[in-house]
Amino acid sequence: MDTQTLSPDALSVIDHYLHFHVGPAVCSIPYFNNKTVRARGALGISVGKGSPKEITDEVNMLIFKHHIDSNALTNDSLKKFLVDRNIGIDCSGFAYHILNSESRARNKDGLKKRIAFTRARGLVGRIMAKMSPVKNTDVATLADNENSRIIAIGEVMPGDMIIMIQETTDDERNHILVVHEVERVDSKPTVIHYSHAIAYPEDGLYGSGMKQGTIEIADPTGSLFQQLWKEGGMIEGASNIFTRARGSRTELRRLKWLYS
Asked: Are 48 and 88 in contact (CB under 8 A)?
């Protein structure tokens, strides 16, 4: 068996979101829903687009400002601290920082230089997008044919994206998974490992954040829905993400430059 993974730098980004440390406490960064917290003119940290470093700096500043003893934090109280202050990451912000790190690790430049903002409106919109690329890179932008292409399951590699587009005008319901590992046997993919940021109904107020799962490939010539999805101990139809994928236009995509 052969296992392929993202670069150490990109895996480190995932780990920082998944295991956010303050003092002895550790938790995953909560999911940020821009639909419920409207602050689009704010800094990336305030709209679910912050990098691990930006989130760390913001949390350290708040701890200092409010005279909080970081050594007294528990895993649960740290998660509550983040949620109550609207500190989190959305699915496209999470994907952006992982793919940006992977692109740099492959000497392909960062996403700021690569992404085509075809959805930006007018000259001002394009300038704003280039000035704040992470805030303007949503799922639909990553799924745009100018930025990525559809690939077959047999081609899957770390850094590829499973993109779910809602066939409505509600961009907030679009979603993205990032492939961080691929297992192969005789050069054929057998298991896809993915990471994403999401909030499920059963997560409640303080349970959202980073999730990871697998897709066991039963038929590499078939569609994604013909494979075995597992996440959080749940399989296929019982899995929220599989159900969401079935209700979307779901595509396996690759940034055009990543493996060129």
From this structure: yes
